[in-house]
Automatic annotation (TrEMBL), chain A:
It holds the Pfam family GATase_6. This is Glutamine amidotransferase. It comes from the Bacteria. Residues 2-225 form the Glutamine amidotransferase type-2 domain. GO terms for molecular function: transferase activity. It comes from Acrocarpospora phusangensis. InterPro entries: GATase_2_dom, Ntn_hydrolases_N. PANTHER family: AMIDOPHOSPHORIBOSYLTRANSFERASE. Keywords: Glutamine amidotransferase, Transferase.
Automatic annotation (TrEMBL), chain B:
This is FMN-binding glutamate synthase family protein. GO terms for biological process: glutamate biosynthetic process. Keywords: Oxidoreductase. Residues 60-390 form the Glutamate synthase domain. GO terms for molecular function: glutamate synthase activity. It comes from Acrocarpospora phusangensis.
């Protein structure tokens, strides 16, 4: 019900083009999420969200002019919660952790209650926010991002492809059934993930990239350089 | 007017000069799991495929304190029913069935029999107010201990075993004279509240070298407080038995007029355990189908127990397997409506100590029926869980349910179907 795009730039020469590349990628997954969209741009953890077509939002934000090291974006077709900017991904929590989710969790209400009982605040009734809050909670308890994602796989039921970025890292993980789409491409200059290959096809050097589908319940993690 | 059932009750008391006693559970209609329905998956949630996508049912109890936690392959155990109330072949059959499907069975008042111990892979040993048959050797032979504070059929009351069922073996195990009517104590002499109970639980842990989990069973009345106190006293598992829970022999006035429905009890118990994440909840009382199991789990139970349902699977009130209607008539009862458990005249050899009647129950064939039943309701439970998009039956949650009646909505605290209305919210 949603489109995910994420990009981490290893080649410093590409960093002035981060916004341009992300806008091109998001345009390719707009049909998957025409309701609303959002993006986090690092290293400043700049968060932009809005209701409307992703291409219109990218223009409104002047996304193409933005530089940065990495970004994670989401185009949304709402399932159970409202179409508002507050319900848009990425959910940005803790120390600049951004999470985008394609799918639907099946036991999020229980996990939300457990986190609320531990004093974790929530901004929305969105199931994906529960995953972001869970990761931030685990990391505040001392776990690294990789361990927190493994615990998420143990605790969360349902269908999910997740892309997560922190100021230091970029990670991708999928549920055990892995039926929500995801594809990863890597070159010396960048690593990118998207819901569909066509969003990766817009990137420079894609013809020579290593392209692969992430395995179920395997945490893929790249640290920022 | 003459057909008024309350008149029948008056006539019965006028004839007997005492209160009626019977077996079974509450007969009157109370709000129950049947008054709820699942919101299964379609577009906003995704269902799991039954053929190739796993749905876990494994349930672990007591992992926080016990060196050997109880590991159940299915979230359904067999409730405590005594040797005395039940025949030795019936207890053996329940043990065989539980072992075959990877779950636990439970002793009952009057102690543990060797047949039951040998046939049960996982046997829960009850510690009851009566102390009948309770001894340290059997305690150390148990896989878990269940401290019984009360029972859904008679919370606040003690067990009963009528003289007809106190044959030589039962009487010897309970150190009672043969043939007397036994009325068990309604509270244990070692504790009268959570403070003494904590000491009792520590004593049981010491006696078993912290090897096995300790359960505490309560009849569902002041559930929130009782469950919190049981957890505070150190229970690994709290067993909450609702008012539909059955019995081998109890005063009718207890069965029908004490306790609260299982549907209401499960939610209160889950609330009470919110601050005790390591303490598990087992719910019993009127659980009959896979739908009942799934709904109990969704409302917060980690597992359920079946008593009456296991006996019905075994052959209770049955005329299909070995027993024709005549076998009921000759004992003054009727197939389908028989609650003569307390008389010892059980037409199907389950609730009797008569050697001739016991011979009617083949423990091996009976065990097959009970195991089939447990497997079938486990399949139904996973079917509903998969349809709700869950890869583990324990991931069912209250948000997966809506109620069909206002009463059930209020008790289960889920919305009335088609609305967002939860009475009282």
């Amino acid at each position: 019900m949603c489109g995910i795009t994420a990009l981490q730039l290893r080649d410093a020469d590409l960093r002035p083009r981060l916004g341009e590349l992300m806008a091109a990628m998001m345009a390719q997954v707009a049909e998957r999420g025409p309701d609303s969209a959002g993006i986090t741009i690092y290293p400043d953890v700049r968060v932009l969200k809005g209701v409307g077509h992703p291409a219109a939002l990218a223009a409104e934000w002047r996304l193409r002019e933005m530089a940065g090291t990495q970004a994670v974006a989401h185009t949304r077709m709402a399932t159970e919660s409202a179409i508002t900017a507050a319900h848009c991904h990425p959910f940005v929590v803790g120390d600049g952790l951004s999470l985008v989710h394609n799918g639907s969790f099946a036991n999020h209400a229980t996990i939300r209650r457990e986190l609320l009982a531990r004093g974790v605040p929530f901004d929305s009734d969105n199931d994906s926010e529960v995953a972001a809050r869970f990761l931030a909670y685990r990391m505040a308890e001392g776990d690294g991002l990789e361990k927190a994602l493994r615990l998420l796989c143990e605790r969360f039921d349902g269908f999910y492809t997740l892309a997560v970025q922190t100021p230091d890292a970029f990670a991708v993980v999928r549920d055990v059934i892995a039926c929500k789409p995801a594809i990863i491409a890597e070159t010396a200059g960048w690593v990118a993930m998207a819901s569909e290959y066509r969003a990766l096809a817009v990137l420079p050097g894609i013809a020579a990239a290593r392209v692969y589908e992430p395995e179920p319940e395997e945490v893929y993690l790249w640290t920022s350089t | 007017m003459s057909s008024d059932s309350s008149f029948d009750g008056i006539r019965e008391r006028a004839r007997l000069g005492r209160y009626p006693i019977r077996g079974g559970g509450a007969r009157r209609a109370v709000p129950a799991f049947d008054d709820l329905t699942f919101l299964t998956a379609s577009a906003s949630r995704y269902p799991l495929e039954g053929y190739r996508e796993a749905c876990a049912t494994r349930t672990v109890l007591g992992a926080a304190n016990a060196r050997d936690p109880v590991v159940l392959e299915i979230p359904i155990t067999i409730a405590g029913m005594s040797f005395g109330a039940l025949s030795a072949p019936a207890k053996e059959a329940l043990g065989r069935a539980a072992s075959e499907v990877g779950t636990a069975t439970t002793t009952g008042d009057g102690g543990m029999t060797p047949e039951e111990r040998m046939s049960s892979k996982t046997l829960v040993y009850q510690c009851l107010p009566s102390r009948y048959g309770f001894n340290p050797d059997d305690l150390r032979a148990a896989d878990a201990i269940e401290v019984v504070l009360g029972q859904g059929a008679k919370p606040g009351g003690g067990g009963m075993l009528m003289g007809q069922k106190l044959g030589p073996r039962v009487a010897a195990m309970r150190t009672l004279p043969e043939g007397i009517d036994q009325r068990s104590a309604c509270r244990h002499p070692d504790w009268t509240g959570p403070d003494d109970l904590r000491i009792k639980i520590e004593e049981l842990r010491e006696a078993t070298d912290w090897r096995v989990p300790v359960f505490v069973k309560i009849g569902a009345t002041r559930v929130y407080h009782d469950v919190r106190l049981a957890a505070t006293a150190g229970a690994d598992v709290v067993v909450v038995d609702g008012m539909q829970g059955g019995t081998g022999a109890t005063q009718d006035v207890f069965i029908e007029h004490t306790g609260i429905p299982t549907l209401a009890a499960v939610r209160l118990a889950a609330d009470a355990l919110a601050d005790f994440p390591d303490v598990k909840l087992i719910v019993s009382g009127g659980v009959r189908s896979g739908a009942d199991v799934a709904k109990a789990l969704a409302l917060g139970a980690d597992a359920v127990s079946v008593g009456m349902a296991a006996l019905v699977a075994l052959g209770c009130n049955d005329t299909v397997h070995d027993f024709g209607p005549a076998s009921y008539a000759e004992l003054g009862t009727t197939a389908g409506g028989c609650t003569a458990c307390h008389t010892g005249g059980c037409p199907v050899g389950i609730a009797t100590q008569s050697p001739a009647l016991q011979a009617r129950l083949d423990p091996v064939r009976g065990a097959e029926r009970v195991a089939n039943y447990l497997r079938a309701i486990t399949m139904e439970t996973t079917m509903l869980a998969r349809a709700c998009g869950k890869a583990d039956v324990h991931h069912l949650e209250p948000e997966d349910l809506v109620a069909l009646t206002v009463e059930a909505a209020a008790m289960a605290r889920v919305p009335l179907a088609g609305t967002e209305w939860i009475p009282g919210r």
